[in-house]
Amino acid sequence: MKKQKKQISWHRTNIRWLFLGMTCLFQVGCCICIDFPSVLASQIQSTFNVGQKDINYLFSIYSMPNIVLPFFGGLIIDKIGVKSALLIFCSFLVIGQGLCVQGAYDRDFNLLKLGMLFLGIGGEVCLTVAQSALLTKWFLGQEMSLAFGVQITFIRVGSVIGANWLPKVYIWYGDSFTACMIFCYVFILITMLTSFIQCMLDDRSDKRDREQMSQQEIFELEQQPPVNCRDVSEFKLDYYLLSISCVLSYSAFLILQANGIRMFQIRYNLTISQQTFLYSLPYFISASVTPIIGYFIDQIGKRPIFLIISGNLLLLSTIIYSKNVDCSIEDQCFSLVLLAQLINGIFFALYAPVIWPCIPICVNANSQGTGFGIIGSIQNAGLTIFPIIVGKILFDENPISYQYMIYFLGFITIIANISNINIYFYDIYHDNKLMSPSIKLPEYEVVDEQEELSDNTRIE
Questions:
Q1: Which GO terms describe its cellular component (predicted)?
Q2: Domain membership of residue 387 as a residue range
Q3: Cβ atoms within 10 A of the Cβ of 440, count?
Q4: pLDDT at position 218, please?
Q5: Tally of CB atoms within 10 A around 224
Q6: What's the pLDDT band for 233 if we cut at 50, 70, 90?
Q7: Which of 73, 151, 228, 361 is the most buried (most CB within 10 A)?
């Protein structure tokens, strides 16, 4: 008689939470660097003698390569593996932030633009495609919405850290924009180190699982069809409706945030401390609530309904911002912006952990990198085009121009809501995949035969 020893895959143990922690640290480091134009807009204007339209162009430059890169990055991930792709694109982050440091030192705005271009080449593939594909691998069939919620929370933690510390670093070092860029560079190096640790952990997990597989399981794994560009033709309408919702909803929220500090100053006459607090508020709310919402959605599903609710919250905030108020009465303006930002925070806390876990539900397992890549490409097309439009609207910075910006963001939010409603009806008539709770997959167990067993197997 032989004993059988079954060993649970790391993906089914608490090690997955350690991996999630590494992902969160990665997100924080990236977002501190990527968000610096929005939190240092006034400092950039005074250092380089540029206007708010140029700040919006920095975001367009960052997003421009990602109109195509996340798609090809997704194909690269599916072809060469997520670990190799993550390290390749992380190197672009290091180069990009180094160029930003040099641009700040030389006071050369063109070098800053080039740095944002390299940050864009590396940033979105790493943040949106590679990290999402890794999380799906480690949490599929488990707490996937919770994992995505925690990941997105720490993206916003990075934004909050940047918003609160970068202006202080600027002042502490004698109004030095160079010091801010060096501060960001340190975090990029930490991010690179984190990606190495993630790759080592994932590689060890893969080898450990493969060593325990039977020959039949290995054969079946190797017989999986390779990713092909033609796989895109198999993506259904729900995937493309999700893409439209994603690009428009994120664009409306992120463009508002990117221009928020300057809008709070020019349109609402708020103090610096009020500006920083109100800018950070949606991220604080998201950091506090998103993991709870993610866990809740894992249990009950109903994702299309939550998409509709979150879209209406975003529309409500733009309606509040479109209201004319007398900003000579400071408290009245602060109260209005506070209400709008509270609603924005609830929107973001609800929308983010709903939209991203929908993607692996709608695509085949071997095309998930491509699925995340395409939606990332579409999202960045919007984040390239829309900031240019907003930059034109804000060419002459004044309260009226910011109101026109709100009208524009409200328009694209309405289209996003129409897409959310169509997702709901499409899912109802196509198997209710998005409405269903996350399904627990059977535990992956590896059998090591040591002694003969008659009928029963002992699990250790």
A1: endomembrane system
A2: 4-209+228-449
A3: 10
A4: 46
A5: 10
A6: low
A7: 73
